[in-house]
Design goal:
With about 625 residues, this protein is α+β, with helices and mostly antiparallel strands. The protein contains 14 helices and 24 strands. The protein binds zinc ion.
Length: about 625
C-alpha cells in the first residue's frame, strides 16, 4: 500500500536514515508487523509450467504466488516462445544474488523499442504486496499471449513498447514467501541502526499468522460487541467502567517495564518507494540526488533503466491494497499544470470505469495532514522531474468486497471512520464468502509478559494486503484493460505523405507531411515541456550521392504536435483546438536525376520514429 497519514514521530535525535524511512512509513501508513510467520500463500518449489490452452505459452498461475525460480522460468519460457515480442534482461543482481528481471515487449518486426512510445509498469516495490506483482506479470503475459488475436493488443505492440519490471524486490518477496516475514520492501538493515525497545510483532502461537492480542484492562478503550463478541467496539465518550479491553499486535515486548507498551514499526521497513531521487531537484535542501546504490541497488538500477529510456510516456506501479489510483500532486508545492490535470482526470476516469478503483491525488489522500513534511515518491520523481504521467495502483479492497460504501479517500484503507455496522459486514463477508479464513477466532494464550491474553482477529496479510486467490485473476484483469488503454493513448508519429513535384530540369520540391496519430501530444505531458525535458519533432531528408540539396535544412525541428487530447467538445470553442495542430508540413528543394530514391525520417523521443522513401518520377504526360 502507499502511505496514508496516521501518526507523527520521527524527529528523534540521531535517527539513522533507515529508521527515518521506517518512521516515515509509520507516519504515512499503518505500521507493518515484523517477525516470523509461515507464508500460507506460497507453494514451495517451482511448479510445472502449465501450457495455456489458447497457445503454446505457459499460463500464469493464480492459485499461489510465484517463488523466484518459478518466476524466472516462466519469464524465460514466455520469451523463448515469442522472441519476436518479448526480451528479458537483468538490470543487475540483488545483494542476495537474484537477477532483477526486466521485460521489453514490442513487435520487433515493426520497429525497435527505442523508436516507439512506451509505458512502463512495475510490481512488488513492496514485498508483501504480492497482488501488485501478479498484476504486472498478468499484464506481460496477456500482451505476449494475445498479440495477433486481440486487435488492441496487436496494435499496441505493433506501434508502442511496454516495459515491465514484475518484481522490483525479489529478495523481499522471497523472504515473505520463504520465511513468512512481513517486510516493506526488503529485509536489509543499515549498519549500526539498533532498534529501540518496544513490541515486536511475532507469531506467538505458531499458527503461521501474526494477528492481534486482546486482554482485559480496566482503562482499556474497547468492549465486546454485545451480539458479536469477536468484534471490539469503542467505549462511548460518556461511558466508564464495565468489561473493557486493550488490543495490541501479536508479539513480544523488548525491554518491557511492566506497564507501558510501545508498538514498534517493522524492522524491515526500508521502503523502495522513498528511495527514488528527490523530486525537488538536486538544489533542494537535503535532497538526495540518487538512491544510495549500496543500500538499494534495485532502485538505483531501475532509475538508471528509466533514465536511459527517453521514450517513456507513462508509468504505473502496482501495489496493494485499497482499490485506489493515486496520482500527483504528492506535496502541496508540486507542479501540476491545468493541461496535465485534465489529462490525469481523463486517465483516472477510465481507470475508475474499468476497475471501480477510486482515483485520488496522493496529496488528497494525506487529507491535509503533515503537509509540511515533503514526501519523496516514485510518482513524484517521475512526473515532476521527467514529465512522465505516473500512477500508483492500489489493488483490492476487502471493504468493497464486503459491500461497504467507500466514500472519500480515507475510506480506501478504512481509516477508522466507518460505523460498527461496516465492521459487522466485514465479519459476515469473512464467514460467508471466504469460509472464515480471514479472521482468526480469538483463543486463549498465556503471554510470557502480559499473562493471560486472547490471540485472534483479522489476517491482514492474506485478506487485506492481498486479494484472496479465488479473486486474484479478476482483480488484475480489469486493470490490464486500463494499462492497454493508457499505452494506446501515447503519442505516435506517422508519415502521412512524402511527395515530390518537379520544379525545373532535375529540380524537385519534396514535401513531407507528418502526423501525430496518438491521443496525447508528442511531448506527452505539459510538465515535460515546462522543464524542457523533451525536444520537438525532427524531420530529416536523406539523399543519395547523385542528389544535391538546394534549399531548406536537411534536418529540421518542427516543434511539438498536438494529439487528440485537446479535442474534448465542439459545443464550445474552448473545448477543442481547431485546425490540424496534429500535423506538420516540411518542404525541401533538391536537385536529382529522375529515378533517384530519397528517404525521410520523422522522429521524436516520446512519439517514436517514422520513415518513408520515395522514387523521384515525373508525372505521366
Ligand atoms: Zn505499496
Amino acid at each position: 500500500m502507499a502511505e496514508s497519514p496516521k501518526r507523527i514521530g520521527f524527529n528523534q535525535k540521531g535517527i539513522c536514515w533507515k529508521m527515518a524511512l521506517a518512521a516515515a512509513l509509520l507516519i504515512l501508513g499503518e505500521s507493518l508487523p515484523a517477525g516470523e510467520s509461515v507464508n500460507r500463500a506460497a507453494r514451495p518449489g517451482p511448479a510445472a509450467l502449465k501450457r495455456d490452452q489458447r497457445g503454446s505459452l505457459p499460463a500464469l498461475p493464480f492459485d499461489h504466488i510465484l517463488r523466484y525460480d518459478e518466476l524466472t522460468s516462466l519469464l524465460h519460457a514466455w520469451a523463448s516462445a515469442r522472441p519476436d515480442l518479448l526480451q528479458i534482461e537483468s538490470l543487475g543482481r540483488t545483494p542476495e544474488g537474484r537477477e532483477l528481471w526486466f521485460a521489453t515487449v514490442t513487435n520487433t518486426a515493426t520497429g525497435p523499442e527505442a523508436e516507439k512510445p512506451a509505458l512502463i509498469v512495475d510490481g512488488n516495490m513492496h514485498a508483501l504486496e504480492w497482488t501488485g506483482g501478479v498484476a504486472a506479470m498478468n499484464f506481460l503475459w496477456r500482451l505476449v499471449r494475445d498479440h495477433g488475436s486481440d486487435d488492441r493488443i496487436t496494435r499496441l505492440l505493433d506501434t508502442r513498447c511496454v516495459y515491465v519490471l514484475p518484481r522490483l524486490s525479489p529478495d523481499g518477496v522471497e523472504a515473505t514467501l520463504r520465511e513468512g516475514r512481513v517486510i516493506r520492501s526488503v529485509a536489509r538493515e543499515e549498519a549500526g541502526c539498533a532498534p529501540p525497545p518496544g513490541l515486536r510483532m511475532r507469531d506467538l502461537d505458531g499458527d503461521g499468522r501474526i494477528v492481534f492480542m486482546r486482554f482485559r484492562d480496566p482503562s482499556g478503550p474497547w468492549k465486546l460487541h454485545p451480539q458479536e463478541p469477536r468484534l471490539l467496539v469503542a467505549c462511548r465518550a460518556d461511558e466508564a467502567g464495565g468489561d473493557t479491553w486493550r488490543v495490541v499486535p501479536e508479539g513480544l515486548i523488548e525491554g518491557y517495564d511492566g506497564d507501558s507498551i510501545t508498538v514498534l514499526p517493522a524492522l524491515e521497513g526500508l521502503d523502495f518507494g522513498m528511495a527514488f531521487p528527490d523530486d525537488r531537484g538536486p538544489s533542494a535542501a537535503g535532497a538526495r540526488q540518487a538512491p544510495d546504490p549500496a543500500l538499494v541497488p534495485e532502485v538505483a538500477a531501475y532509475v538508471k533503466a528509466i533514465r536511459s529510456r527517453p521514450n517513456i510516456v507513462a508509468y504505473v506501479t502496482c501495489h496493494s491494497f485499497g482499490g485506489g489510483l493515486l496520482m500527483p500532486p504528492v506535496n502541496p508545492d508540486d507542479p501540476l499544470p491545468q493541461t496535465d490535470r485534465l489529462t490525469y482526470a481523463a486517465f483516472a476516469a477510465k481507470a475508475a470505469e474499468l476497475t471501480g478503483y477510486h482515483p485520488t491525488s496522493y496529496l488528497d489522500l494525506r487529507a491535509g495532514q503533515m503537509t509540511d513534511v515533503h514526501i519523496p515518491t516514485e510518482i513524484g520523481w517521475l512526473y515532476s522531474v521527467h514529465g512522465i504521467f505516473a500512477f500508483i495502483t492500489e489493488f483490492w479492497n476487502p471493504l468493497k468486497a464486503a459491500g461497504i460504501s467507500l466514500d472519500g479517500p480515507m475510506s480506501l484503507w478504512l481509516g477508522g471512520y466507518h460505523p460498527v455496522e461496516d465492521e459487522l459486514k466485514l465479519l459476515r463477508w469473512n464467514d460467508s464468502e471466504i469460509g472464515g479464513a480471514g479472521f482468526v477466532a480469538w483463543h486463549p494464550f498465556r503471554h510470557p509478559q502480559l499473562g493471560p491474553v486472547e490471540i485472534g482477529g483479522w489476517d491482514k496479510v492474506h485478506y487485506w494486503y492481498n486479494a484472496p486467490f479465488d479473486r486474484l485473476e479478476k482483480e488484475v484483469t480489469l486493470h490490464a484493460d486500463w494499462l492497454i488503454f493508457l499505452a494506446l493513448a501515447s503519442p505516435r508519429l506517422e508519415i502521412r505523405s512524402l511527395r515530390a513535384q518537379p520544379v525545373g530540369e532535375g529540380v524537385w520540391r519534396v514535401r513531407l507531411v507528418i502526423e501525430n496519430t496518438g491521443w496525447l501530444p508528442t511531448n506527452g505531458s505539459q510538465r515535460a515541456l515546462d522543464i524542457r525535458g523533451v525536444e520537438g519533432v525532427v524531420a530529416e531528408l536523406s539523399l543519395p550521392p547523385a542528389a544535391r540539396f538546394i534549399e531548406g535544412d536537411l534536418r529540421r525541428s518542427v516543434g511539438q504536435l498536438s494529439g487528440r487530447s485537446e479535442q474534448r467538445s465542439t459545443a464550445t470553442w474552448w473545448g477543442y483546438n481547431p485546425g490540424t495542430p496534429d500535423r506538420a508540413v516540411v518542404d525541401w528543394k533538391i536537385a536529382a536525376p529522375a529515378g533517384t530514391t530519397v528517404s525521410a525520417t520523422a522522429s521524436h523521443a516520446r512519439a517514436g520514429t517514422a520513415r518513408a522513401t520515395l522514387r523521384l518520377q515525373r508525372p505521366p504526360g
